[in-house]
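Field: sequence (string)
Field: structure_tokens (string)

Example rows 1 and 2, in order.
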Amino acid sequence: MLIRFENVTKRFGRFVAVDNVSLDIAAGEFFSLLGPSGCGKTTLLRMLAGLEIPSEGRILIDGVDMTGVPPNRRPVNMVFQSYAVFPHMSVADNVAYGLKIDRVPRDERDARVAEALALVKLDAFARRRPDQLSGGQRQRVALARALVKRPKVLLLDEPLSALDAKLRDAMRGELAAIQREVGVTFVMVTHDQDEALALASRCALMNAGTLQQVASPGDLYEYPTNRFVADFIGTINLFEGRVSAHGRVTTPALNAPLEVLTAAHQVVGAKVWVGVRPEKITMTPAGAPHPHNPANATQGTIIISAYLGAVTMYDIRTPAGTLIKVTAPNGTRTAGPALATGSEVWLQWTAAASVVLDD
């Protein structure tokens, strides 16, 4: 493993920002530290950069213990949320700055700057100053300045948060393409789950200083290990209940039992939560035939429909008073949702569509 956190804890006075974290990151990964504000992800990144010192544990890069190694001696470079480009320098001089500090010869420096600017598609902007660039272009300047030093690890602290939504989407693709081309290990901190899922090969989801789950984006979404992960990643319907038999959960949220895939340790009587993603629920008008299988089925009334272009998000109230979210694709060219607010509908999903989470 290129990066290893071994039982790392960071305290600020009595506050524990990072609590006994052990984590491995492989060479060439695009790895994301994800979680809500204050969860410890930025502190973990800053300890990797050498900007904070662990209270306990140690951090290794390429097998070398980084304890006592100052930031400028570590094989890492960092792109800050604010980009921190020098306003009085040209784009080329910004990118060359670190190489000048390292006393890289002029010819080599010029060649590496040109290579870095070409990589981020800014070679035509070399002589411009940052105030003549867009936000996305300034972000690419900061990226080129970090990559020109050829670090083993590039650290990104909320790299796209200062951009508007459309530019952020475009930069995601560019950032992923650059990482694939250079092959450098990227470690990114973000609170934006869409950003993490779109870019990362693996994500570590944190909460209150601890690791909740480390997995691929697909596994985080489809196979969350606890209620926090399920609720944080995407949108999910959560029903509280108890295991009544193997593969069956009773819940006050619905009038019918739930057929589920329970784990061996989820014994009869255990309190659990059943999660179902909105897009995995089938919705049909109430006039359609009653579902043959009463499990995982309920009637409801559409109380909100939000047309979002590719999909429509429905909020449906069941007779038991439970609110269920359903996402339906807009497969035909229409100007609004297929079913109007106030419509009566049937909802149903399969046992395999749900995930059973321990309380």
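Row 2 begins here:
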Amino acid sequence: MMGKLQPFIHVPYFFSDAFDLSYEFWGDATGYDQVVYRGNMDEKQFSVWWLKKQTLCAALIMNRPEEERAVAPRWILRHARLDPKALQNSRNLKSLDTTFGRQE
């Protein structure tokens, strides 16, 4: 528009709300080599993070804090490299985000 060409940048996204379940999925897990789980699957409050060479490629988040939904697409878009143990155990995901506060 307006004569200014810019690339279309998009993180694949899907969501569903059914009864007491609410989940969102970002990215493409094709070719992943590691999976990190957070939360409690028995209580239906968990997230699954797919990594490819420690780079986040996809995330599924079900009934989890807003913080996880906020960082997932950002990290996928920016090809964030994450330490799997830190991702699994961190109470504050923003502390793992080396791009937090940057504008792009």
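free_text_note (row 2): The radius of gyration is 15 Å.
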